[in-house]
Prior knowledge:
Blueprint: H1 2-10, H2 22-29, E1 35-40, E2 47-50, H3 52-57, H4 63-70, H5 74-77, H6 83-95, E3 102-110, E4 116-128, E5 132-141, H7 143-174, H8 178-197
Antiparallel strand pairs: 1-2, 1-5, 3-4, 4-5
Amino acid sequence: MAKMESRRERYSDGFALTKFTMPVIWQMSSVIPGGFFIYHEDEKRELIYANNKVLDIYGCKTLDEFKELTGYTFQGMVHPDDFESIQTTIDSQIDDEKGDSTDHVEYRIIRKDGEVRWVDDYGHYSYSPEFGDVYYVFISDITEKKALIRSEKHYDRLYSDIQNLLADLDRIQMSSDEKTKADLEKIKKEMERITEVHGLAPGTSK
């Protein structure tokens, strides 16, 4: 209770959700490119609103499908293995005295078809006398972006390993007989060819 009172006092000048501002929010959220939803910041974390893009991200055709999938709660939207950690992160960002009323987290979701995807979440805390403590949240699907980053890191590590191995071969070559040097040179050339053919240079992937 004390924590929530502190939040309300710190962010009392924020945008308040009311029955008069709700229609404006609904209209604006219907034309933005990403997902947008609002939920109560309490034990249930029940949603107040979710736009059609949120339904698309979760693979739902109707609001009823989305409600059945998630229970129409924020916790139900998050992969069960991720919820506790991301909720802790959200709380720490909002309650940080050096921070503001916004938070940023990434987490997994489970779509209606069972596919696991990654989303980027930007939330904004606000207190409303009519609705209580609420979060306005913008989300977008970043699954492909995450996969690309992982792929680039993999290629960078592989390239680094090959370069280290080539350096080791150079050192061995210096203390080897002529036949061994010739054999090692063939191995080096083949590794360099593989590196070039597969584009194994830092920051590249195929």
